[in-house]
Amino acid sequence: MNGNRFRYSYSAPDEREREEIERIRAAYRTDERAEKFSRLRRLNARVRHAATGTTCALGIAGCLLFGGGMSMTLVGGNWVGGIILSACGILPMLAAIPVYNRVLCRLRRKYGPEILRLSEELLGKTGTPADTAQNRGESS
User: Fold this and answer.
1) What is the rounded CA–CA span in Å between residue 130 and residue 76?
2) Ranges of each domain in the chain
3) CB–CB of 103/58 below 8 Å?
4) Is residue 60 classed as helix, strand or coil in its secondary structure?
5) Global confidence as pTM
6) In whole angstroms, what is the distance from residue 85 CA to residue 124 CA?
7) Helix 32-71 to helix 79-123 angle, to the nearest 10 degrees?
8) Taking the alpha carbons of 132, 134, 137, 140 in that order, is the dihedral positive or negative?
9) pLDDT one digit per residue (tens) for the chain, 140 residues
């Protein structure tokens, strides 16, 4: 009957083992707050960079056209063609700022609700932006 005995022994992990277990556990745990913050940053960067990229492309194209027209006028001696090309180069440069504002406004409308929702979750606030303005004593 001695061979049918049940033996059980338990030993708790020491401090060093516990720290290693916690490090391994942390590597596989997803931090929802960090993921939301990362998404918030990416959305904000997408809005700003898309508008800036569009504006830069327009400005560079305008500068190249303007420079080509100046070269035609000064070096090539083609005054009429150079002035027309330079004038065509000024137009995209003048349009760059309004295009930036329109693209930024369109992207803010597109991504704004998601950015506001994520920021409110991260700040621990609920409600609409008008509700939070009233809570701070501001008028909307």
Assistant:
1) 61
2) 55-123
3) no
4) helix
5) 0.63
6) 56
7) 170
8) positive
9) 456 787 777 677 788 888 888 888 888 877 788 888 889 999 999 999 999 999 999 999 999 999 999 999 999 889 999 999 999 999 999 999 999 999 999 999 999 999 999 999 888 876 555 544 444 444 43
